[in-house]
């Protein structure tokens, strides 16, 4: 890989959860650049605050399906009732300026300036709305990719997949606690290609309720996966007050 050494903060699937975003930013190590992999809004009670904060953090973005749904770029037929209800609530809540900004987010893949071997997508490199959940889902893009590292979101599952000379496999960071802030380092190898998901900041779905994010050190070629507790009760209470589907709030406690 080329370009000056950068420490890149990777945020994905914040889903209008301001409490979770704030907690991630509070524990994040020093970084040079923020990359946002989409689904800034949808589900949570703070679409404007999270959009404002995301815009300020800047610079590199990919749009997510919930960003499209909330801004009318996608019809809601593909959404379940809870997601569609939240998308309509979000659309009514967003300021005209934030609606316009979200609507103009770019379609993935987006390349990373100065790092031609890195690309950013929301779903899969082949289809922005496709879920890469299993090794089987990951294989087709992995074997056809020309770039060595793709960061993706959409599944809300932290970890990823790789292919190298001897095979292919998936991996998940292994944490030692269930309630504290901690991180797990993952060393990239030059001989492999990777699909890596930093996890969901605001709607984790891998059985761990803590907010998830990652930091990529381009010099050391290390991805640091992070989890951090956040003010869950506040996020939930504001979702109840907003009359969002209650299940969207209660499921945050289980990370499912
Ligand atoms: Zn999402």
Keywords:
single chain; 256 residues; alpha/beta; Purple Acid Phosphatase, chain A, domain 2; 6-stranded mixed β-sheet; globular; Pesterase_MJ0912; phosphatase activity; Ap4A_hydrolase; Ser/Thr protein phosphatase family protein; Metallo-depent_PP-like
Summarize the entry for a quick read.
29% of the residues lie in helices and 23% in strands. By secondary structure, the chain is an alpha/beta fold.
Q: Any overview of this molecule?
A:
Belongs to the metallophosphoesterase superfamily. YfcE family. One of its GO terms (molecular function) is phosphatase activity. It comes from Candidatus Sulfotelmatobacter kueseliae. This is Ser/Thr protein phosphatase family protein. This protein has 256 residues and is an alpha/beta fold. The chain has a single domain (7-253), classed as 4-Layer Sandwich (Purple Acid Phosphatase, chain A, domain 2). It is built from eight helices and twelve strands. The strands form two sheets. Strands 3-2-1-11-12-9 form a six-stranded mixed beta sheet. Strands 4-5-6-10-7-8 form a six-stranded mixed beta sheet, covered by helices on one side. A hairpin with a 2-residue loop joins β7 and β8. Zinc ion binds at residues 13, 15, 39, 64, 66, 154, 156.
Structural class: alpha/beta
Q: Helix share of residues?
A: 25-40%
> Can you tell me the number of structural domains?
1
Which CATH class? Alpha Beta
Number of helices: 8
Q: Which topology does CATH recognise? A: Purple Acid Phosphatase, chain A, domain 2
- The spatial strand order of the largest sheet comes to 3-2-1-11-12-9
**Runs with pLDDT <50, length 5+?**
none
Q: So what's the overall shape?
A: globular
Radius of gyration from the alpha-carbon trace, in angstroms:
17 Å
Got a strand count? 12
Write the CATH homologous superfamily.
Answer: Metallo-dependent phosphatases
The percent range for strand residues is 15-25%
Main sheet overview: 6 strands, mixed
Give the N-terminus to C-terminus distance in angstroms. 36 Å
Distinct bound molecules: zinc ion
Secondary-structure element order, N to C: EHEHEHHHEEHEEEEEEEHH
Please state the oligomeric state of the protein chains shown.
Answer: single chain
